[in-house]
Predict the 3D structure of the following.
Amino acid sequence: MPIAGLEKSIGTLLEKSARRYGEKKTINFHPENVFFSFKQLDKKVNQFANALRTEGISRGDHIAVMLPNCPEFPLTWLALAKLGAVMVPLNTRYQAVDLKYVLNDSDASALILHTEFLSTFAEAQPQTPKVKKVFRAGDKGKAPGKFLADLADGASKEFTVTDIGLNDLVNIQYTSGTTGFPKGCMLSHEYWLTCGMSAALNMKPDDVFLSVSPFYYMDPQWELIMCLTAGASMVLAKKYSASSYMQLVREYGVTTAWGTMAAWTLKQPESPDDKQHRLRFVFVGAIPPHLHKQFEERFNVRAREAYGMTEIGPGMFVPLEDDHMTGSGSVGKPPDFREVRIVDNNGDDVAPGGIGELLIKGPGMFKGYYKKPKETAEAFTGEWFHTGDLFRQDENGYYYIVGRKKDMIRRSGDNISASEVEHVLTSHPKILSAAVVPVPDESRGEEVKAYIAPVQGETPESIPPEEIIAFCLDSIAEFKVPRYIEYVDEFQRTASGKIQKHVLISAKEDLTADCYDRMASK
């Protein structure tokens, strides 16, 4: 059953918020300083919905969106939600191979594309025959075609949401999988409304929330629903900048924010203005415990850990009042509508204080992986979703992430499949085998390290790191490319031939020592 108090759909939430909050500012785009009131946002979304409907977009259609943070992105998302269509957000750092896979796998029939990414799509387009329509945003001087904002300007400001309900899909949100191929998480209206209502419990109508992540991530999307639910305002920045983050906080009177990049912000020179702001609290994820208290003291703001993932939405959070948990490393406790278990490899609950995989269930989670029934079935035991994360619980009921069961790397909010990167590396004619592992990093959470075993007759000199990096950049998005490279003669393997990655990870205390670092070479 859905949690109590949810609206019927995102469209009905937007309409009710528009009636309730009227001319109050709801979203501001930085640096353009373009903003909408609640009422203006609803009317503009209606125009986008009517324009798309006139162009043949209807309920159930899958529409890919490749845009930077700009007004067209949230307007399109909300318009598709009103239409009952499904958005497929595309990472703007995708190369043609990534783009081709997601467009084909998602069955996208149309694409809304910023002119900045025309060349990437041009390379993928011959192999994406399902995409029948392309709408543009961005620089009109770069290419002809239908610009969505122009189509919307001439459309009606009135739109009636009909029978769209909680179970209707809103997104197919791609997240990297351990098989090496991204999987599309099917996210419904109930999913997004549950995310927004849960987060809004900590918000006030006079709050101003700063969002700095790309809108193709799930974070700015639930943050917008949170603000619509709470009657708060949102500032959507073009991108994150450590040097200007606190400047933005002061410029827009920000009271709450997502502070995942706290470690980067801390590395900026201290300023007498560090405490001159209106911040009440920030959400953080995976902040190094030893930096947590330092961040709070320097900026005089509460930083509260939270845990979630694309499949489950909200999972756990540390309550605002729990100041004693600062620096503990805990991700808090689950909300009332979530149930969790920690289990061993046999699926049995571990003893108190023991370590095991976190299982979680409750309303408003994803509806499975698109076109992947086998992977969906494997992800669940009954109603319990297997997170792939190893947890423990202390005697006071707080939960802690201990490690990862799945072969994944989480770098600055991106989920990276180790096997996908390994597949690219081993396609190089001079590389016999490769192993990709996560390396702890204070700024990005984790970095990507690749161990390389050259083919017989090749050496680190005949296949230098620069060649490997260039090869990867031609094949996968830049954020997936290894930062660290280390050469080995051979790998220790299991009886079934699998590389024993734990041997590599435990070989030395500092995994970044005595290896190539592409960031240091820039």
User: Anything to note?
Assistant: The domain at 408-517 is CATH 3.30.300.30 (GMP Synthetase; Chain A, domain 3). The chain has 15 helices and 27 strands. The mean pLDDT is 92.
